[in-house]
Amino acid sequence: MPDRRLIALGVAAVACMVAFLLTGLRGNIAFVLELRAIKLAALLQVGVSIAISTVIFQTVTGNRILTPSIMGLDALYLFGQMLMVFLLGGIGYVSLDPWLKFGVEILTLMALACTLLLPMLKRRLDMGLMLLAGVILGVLFRSLHSLLARLIDPNEFAVAQSASFANFNAVRSDLLIFATLVTAGAAVLAWRARHILDIVSLGSDAATSLGISWVRTVTGLLLLVSGSVAVSTALVGPVAFFGLLVVALAERIVDTRRHAVLLPAAALIAIVVLVGGQTLFQHALGNSSALSVVIEFIGGILFLLLLILGSRR
Amino acid sequence: MTIISVDTPTRRRLVAGLGLAILFLASLSVGVGEFSLARVVNDPEALQLLLISRLPRTLAAVLAGAGLAIAGLIMQTLAQNRFVEPSTAGTAQSAELGILLATLLLPAASLPIKTLVASGAAMAGTSVFLMTAHRLPPTQPFLVPLFGIVYGGVIGAAATFAAWHADLLQFLSVWTNGDFSGVLRGRYELLWFAALTVAIAWLVADRLTIMALGRDASIGLGINHARMMQLGLVVVSVISALTVVVVGMIPFVGLVVPNIVSRLMGDNLRGTIVCVAASGSGLVLGCDIIGRIIRFPYEIPVGTVMGVVGGLVFLWLLFRRPDHA
Amino acid sequence: MIRIENVSLRYRTTPILHDIDLTIPKGGVTALIGPNGAGKSSLLSLIARLQPLQTGSITIDGLGVDSTPSPELAKVVALLRQDSVIASRLRVRELVGFGRFPHGRGRLTQEDCNIVNQSLRQLDLTDFADRFMETLSGGQRQRALVAMTLAQGTDYILLDEPLNNLDMYYARTLMQALRAIADENGKTVVIVLHDINQASAYADRIVAMKGGRVVGDGTPAAIFTPDVLEGIFGFRMRVETFDGKPLVLHHL
Ligand SMILES: Nc1ncnc2c1ncn2[C@@H]1O[C@H](COP(=O)(O)OP(=O)(O)OP(=O)(O)O)[C@@H](O)[C@H]1O
Ligand SMILES: [Mg+2]
Predict the structure, then answer these.
(1) Global pTM?
(2) CB contact, 8 Å: C94 with chain B?
(3) ipTM score here?
């Protein structure tokens, strides 16, 4: 039964991609097509990385309303980036090889994420406390980010602005090849870990008695999550509630927490929402930068609902 | 008997007052313009600078800080949760949305009128928060601020969307990120209302303390619980709207100040409310001074500095070991 | 006199209290007993206007609890809740001082201070007066809450299971203190007790509740018989007479 739903989701995703590529083609068709293909590739990666990172993060933390970005991971990425600019100086930073730069940024995020989150996961703190701490960490890193931005260039207000919302239009296509490698790697790893993830979702005690080395596994999964977050944030900027929205929808549709089904379902839904939404906003509503705000709005409300409903149970 | 911390409230109050006075003078002397306090006496230009820019800026920081700290205190009393304040309860964001709508729909209205609209919006937004927060389980105190932060984020997203549509994003960032650099004589006087609200809070301090004991205890002692809730709501909303409109939102003040004062002096507000106000002033003034000197001659907005300082203190408050098991 | 007429209460569709008619005369100690969930706390919270009356009427010395201004009632009746939690960082003396709020609206006169000190002494709290509440033990905290209720200085004092957390010494001391203020100051004490031997030793009158109804009302000697007790609590217990008062061997 879930298989049939997965196929339906796959068909929907392909339809969205085709619509994205072909709607309203005009002018120099080859050129426009190439442009759109690049953008599509970026959107696919964003969707897949956010879906993967959110599913795994929820499984590891044993919590359905956590996402990496609610815990401040994307703010952390932006902060790490700004820290590099600060330490290397604007020119030194720009002259770095973009691959090297991105590689270092991903490694920085992985290191920071593990130092910050591992202690929490080992102790399995009260979930409310953990969430709140994460949100505050997010605020803190955003403030640090804009503080550094101003220290580097006091007149550059745009830098601080850019950190607040994702922009699915201005995709960083220079990173595309590298990001593709990371996303593909993360997807393969996540897929291979699907059975382990099922066990991890039982919690540390049960998983340990089933022969899983908890700390090692969780560390590995966190690294995977950090890599995916870095990709999506680098490509389009921070997206707070998109992952939550996507995974909640996926769970609704395939009605299982089995990762062999949930992972692909979440990725496909992410693609449908992102690519389909982008097509819709671009052609039907005539402005596409609003998509991220709308997604955040709906995702935020969903989060509040989950919080209230979940706590009543 | 175990060790009791022998408190010397008078000395603490003295220290707080002295600190505030030093910060006040420092704030008067730090800035780009050529200026020293000694020259004010016989240099009319320096006096002008003092009266038009430095003094208003300093007063604005003092007033906003005191107001926000008191607003946080009242908010915590009403929600019976130590971790809420105007910026973690949707109040400030609602005020932002309100002032944005006022600017869009009533472009000709005067600033006080727009502030009134913003206060109304803040009140509506905060009421919704308080009603909903009630449904969260009291056994999980951290859910309430979490809910409030995301709730504020959703309202903020709505404001961003509206501002972006109307091409007012520039304005919005003025309201979302507190900054005293634009404060001049004639542009901050509305903030004196914050002083008024502090006075009100002082007058009803006992009632507020009892409200913090819970609904049943306050009714048992003959307090009109519903009316106090409404009064608190009005005070919190007005203070938040005033700061948002005049200088922009400053996060965390209302959160960290009352918590630290409570740790040092307890929760008998009759004795602590003045300290809360003074410490709020001191914190905002201090952060503003830091923002002015850290990248001299450029300025870093107080909202950004406070995001870092306040965020760190908040995390410390969250993770410090409780004083009792 | 507390006069309760035709009072019923329901939460949504669940009936909690059924047509309660009860008169508690002025002066003396009345003990309210009954199994868990009988409706004792609900009845007390209606008397103390903590929730609105749904039907019927309750008057205290002729003052209707739903029509008299709340600040007035606060000088007439005080209630200690079964599950009071104090989250504020207050010193014991400050907390007890807030019991005087209805009289001076926050200004403590010399007389107020004397009353506060007297309550502190009655509950043997003088040594703890300047400690923060959260640094006290459970029983000490309970005593502070009782002291606050007594400091309110009302003619009618409603106490919902005040012996919770108290050791035998302080349970006895509190009951003796309540007896004393009833006898010497003419106060009316209504107290929910699960220890029926305390009720037997110190109360003038027993009101028994079960399933939202009053099922017994009389002197200890009249209520504490094996038959009546079995009707209330659902099992048979031996009752002896000791010093002229019933002694219930309910634990055997
Ligand atoms: N807020 C509420 N919502 C629904 N039902 C309630 C509520 N409060 C109490 N009840 C129900 O009302 C009944 C009476 O409760 P009450 O607290 O008055 O009992 P009690 O006699 O004080 O018991 P105990 O000896 O356990 O304190 C119980 O069955 C309880 O489940
Ligand atoms: Mg009870």
Answers:
(1) 0.79
(2) yes
(3) 0.75
